[in-house]
Specification:
about 450 residues; alpha/beta; Alpha-D-Glucose-1,6-Bisphosphate, Chain A, domain 3; seven-stranded mixed beta sheet; 18 strands; about 40% helix; globular
């Protein structure tokens, strides 16, 4: 894959109003996306593009710039306003649009922003298409200019909101009600602040909402999946059955059990696999998809159930690509991205939370009882800020430390060292069957990486 200037592992992302997250680039990307899907002529010669956003202040700027780019190239834009990323993916397919675009930087602070693009099936674009779009953005003369009656238009529709709500509710077994359940729901002042509480309430839950007052400047600030502490305390204070913490674009969630303890995302995947197996949706020998960051404990648990486990590179789009290729129906990441391929084409935090409730109802157990079945290896993850991302393989000190760590671990654990695809960070992850050794090796790696790369 060629080195890319604009796109990372999850679309474009960076500081808002600083290259590449500027209005000018958003306008050019709007033109490029329209021209690309116009050539495909999936539904008509005038591409229809669904355009959503989260609640960041900079979304106003980028939404209008991208929309202007689409209109200048002869496309039609439907503006949804704030809507979760999985909602944009679903609505794109539901409305037979040619593409869907979400303006969001997910779990990043308010001053960052990003752009994610989906095709007509609601799938994130493969690397090859992103490379083509990047080439058009960087070489705008290759895009023909539209004039006169060739220009497009934009409309704002609010009813798309209800489509997503009904879709998520329909994914849950209708035999189960949430009547009598107490749920703490932290929406991170993000894209799910309105629709997610509505879903739980319409299913009968008594909802205690947090993070539902977006100001444009407070998304993910001391709340949501990045900071579940407030929700955890509230769960304990009111005796809730569970807590749910979404991130800024609501494509992933962190679950809190009835004791106020945060549940690991890999434990969720294990619970979901057991649910689908017991419901005969999965059968022995089927494959569950994770990433290189997935815990060895999850892999061992799935094997004990008679299932297989496959790892992809980090990023839910790589997971769904493999799921589509292999016809797998469940995949996810430790961060809380969970993909139910029968219901969604990307990670969906609200849907995953509803499925957790279905697990509780089907098994007749609490969250803590369900997740205790998935025994994870001790794991330590440290994120280190970097100003540049030189190839790790070219640094002799880091490679020597890695070789030593892997030798000491043997087959009792793993070491993963990788740059973040969405932030200026390098991630050091160590896991093994002995927590003391994990801590020791992680500390040594962090020291070397900090010295060499910061």
């Amino acid at each position: 894959m060629a080195k890319r200037e604009l796109f990372g592992t999850d679309g474009m992302r960076g500081k808002a109003n600083v290259y590449p997250m500027t209005g000018e680039v958003a306008f050019s990307l709007g033109r490029a996306v329209t021209e690309h899907f116009k050539k495909l002529q999936v539904h008509s010669k005038q591409p229809l593009i669904i355009l959503g956003k989260d609640t960041r202040l900079s979304c106003y700027m980028l939404e209008q710039a991208f929309s202007a780019g689409v209109c200048s190239q002869g496309g039609k834009v439907i503006l949804t306003g704030p809507l979760p990323t999985p909602g944009i993916a679903f609505v794109t397919k539901s409305m037979r649009a040619d593409a869907g675009v979400m303006i969001s930087a997910s779990h990043n602070p308010y001053y960052d922003n990003g752009i994610k693009i989906f095709d007509a099936e609601g799938l994130k674009l493969p690397d090859s298409v992103e490379e083509e779009l990047e080439s058009l953005v960087l070489n705008p003369k290759n895009i023909p200019t539209m004039t006169n009656g060739e220009l497009g238009n934009a409309v704002r529709l609010k009813e798309v909101f209800g489509r997503y709500l009904v879709h998520c509710k329909a994914a849950i077994d209708p035999r189960y009600s949430m009547e009598g359940m107490k749920v703490v729901l932290d929406c991170a002042h993000g894209a799910g602040y309105k629709v997610s509480p509505m879903m739980f309430r319409e299913l009968g839950a008594e909802v205690t909402p947090l993070g539902v007052s977006p100001s444009g400047l407070n998304i993910n600030e001391e709340c949501g999946s990045m900071h579940p502490e407030l929700a955890a305390e509230k769960v304990k204070a009111i005796g809730a059955d569970l807590g749910v913490c979404l991130d800024g674009d609501a494509d992933r969630c962190v679950i809190i059990n009835e004791r106020g303890e945060v549940v690991d995302g890999d434990q969720l995947i294990g619970c979901f696999a057991k649910l689908l197996l017991d419901q005969n949706v999965l059968k022995k020998g089927d494959t569950i998809v994770g990433t290189i960051m997935s815990n060895l404990g999850l892999e061992n648990y799935l094997i004990s159930l008679g299932l297989k486990f496959h790892r992809t590179q980090v990023g839910d789009r790589y997971i769904i690509e493999y799921m589509n290729h292999s016809q797998a129906i469940l995949g996810g990441e430790p961060s809380g991205h969970v993909i139910f391929r029968q219901h969604a084409t990307t990670g969906d935090g609200t849907l995953a939370a509803l499925k957790m409730v279905e697990c509780m109802k089907f098994q007749g157990k609490s969250v803590s009882e369900l997740t205790a079945q998935v025994d994870l290896y001790p794991q330590k993850l440290v994120n280190i800020k970097v100003s540049k991302k030189p190839p790790i393989c070219d640094n002799r000190s880091i490679q020597d430390c890695l070789r030593d760590a892997e030798s000491r671990m043997g087959n009792r654990g793993r070491v993963v060292l990788r740059y973040s695809g969405t932030e200026p960070k390098i991630r050091v992850m160590v896991e093994g069957d002995e927590s003391t050794l994990v801590d020791e090796i992680c500390s040594e790696l962090v020291e070397v990486v900090t010295r060499e790369l910061t």
